[in-house]
Specification:
Blueprint lengths: L4 E13 L2 E7 L9 E3 L8 H13 L5 E8 L14 E10 L10 E5 H4 L12 H14 L3 H11 L11 H10 L22 H15 L16 H12 L5 H11 L2 E8 L7 E6 L3 H4 L15
Parallel strand pairs: 1-5
Antiparallel strand pairs: 1-2, 1-3, 2-6, 4-5, 7-8
Helix pairs in contact: 3-4, 5-6
């Protein structure tokens, strides 16, 4: 008898508020979960329409920019489900938004780096890499040279460089090593908060996708108001990249790439000096095929 297969539509809704990258979660389960819902093959004319309706029903939030992310279909996506449970395919989407208050219910915005804390290098190299991650990975690797090399390269250990885009590889390696609560570690021993089912893996996939697209797509502007300062733009890029940017190099890139244009207005904060307001130049989409905010070799100030 063939397996029963169900299809879920799952959303990673990302916003950046006050320099904090945040993800929309629902709290109706033991651990935070991504908003999701089953595909109704009769009521949903398209997958994206079904996703938008599911997210709105679960959170009260109306999605804007959406793109399909990946399909997740491992048999044991939910560790709590028995082996005879129907297999569930998760069709995941990445959505970019500006954070808005949510209606009373079971949804909230949470810091992405609460779930993936080893990915945030904005202030300094995370201490937990040495106190938690490296010991767990080296215990898992033991005397296996290939495992140790893999751990070093993926997590930038023992002098290896850190690659910001290998977010999914890092999560999957920690899962394979049993260092995460969702992979069997004690809840207070894992390096980050757990999510329901395999939703933290989906979040890691989405963060890696966003970091990669910073190089060649102007998606970052979906997370900003129509008028913004260059400092706000830099903070959003830093929040997603998990790295502190060299301000002069970053602004030189933005100016050279002609990604923004001045509005003629000024932002006047309660404290500090007024700052010029800018907006995204939509014409850049016609001028070249890959208008991203990437500057090889000159991003990081430390």
């Amino acid at each position: 008898m063939p397996d029963t297969i169900r299809v879920n539509l799952e959303a990673v809704v990302v916003a950046v508020t006050a320099a904090v990258p945040r993800v929309l979660t629902t709290t109706g389960t033991l651990s935070p979960a991504l908003p999701s819902g089953p595909l109704d093959t009769r009521a949903h004319p398209t997958l994206e329409r079904g996703l938008r309706e599911s997210v709105h029903a679960a959170t009260g939030f109306a999605l804007g920019y959406v793109e399909q992310l990946y399909t997740f279909g491992d048999r044991e996506r939910d560790p709590r489900a028995g082996i005879r449970a129907p297999r569930t395919l998760g069709i995941a989407y990445l959505a970019l938004a500006r954070e808005q208050p949510l209606p009373d219910g079971h949804a909230r915005w949470q810091d992405i780096y609460a779930f993936l804390p080893w990915e945030d290098w904005r202030r300094q190299r995370p201490a937990l890499l040495d106190t938690v991650v490296a010991p767990a990975l080296h215990a898992w690797a033991g005397a296996d040279v290939q495992r140790r090399e893999r751990a070093d390269l993926v997590f930038g250990l023992r002098g290896a460089p850190w690659d910001t885009e290998r977010t999914l590889e890092r999560y999957e390696l920690l899962w394979e090593a049993g260092a995460l609560a969702e992979a069997g570690a004690a809840a207070d021993e894992g390096p980050g908060l757990a999510m329901a089912k395999d939703h933290c893996r989906i979040l890691a996939t989405a963060l890696g996708r966003l970091r990669g697209k910073l190089r060649y797509r102007p998606l970052v502007f979906e997370l900003l108001p129509e008028a913004f300062t260059l400092s706000q733009l830099q903070q959003v890029v830093e929040a997603l990249a998990g790295r502190h940017l060299h301000t002069q190099n970053f602004r030189r890139l933005i100016e050279h790439a002609r990604l923004v244009e001045a509005t003629g207005a000024m932002a006047r904060p309660p404290r500090g000096r007024p700052a010029a307001l800018f907006r995204f130049r939509h014409e850049v989409l016609r001028e070249r095929p890959q208008p991203g905010v990437y500057y090889p070799g000159a991003w990081w100030s430390r």
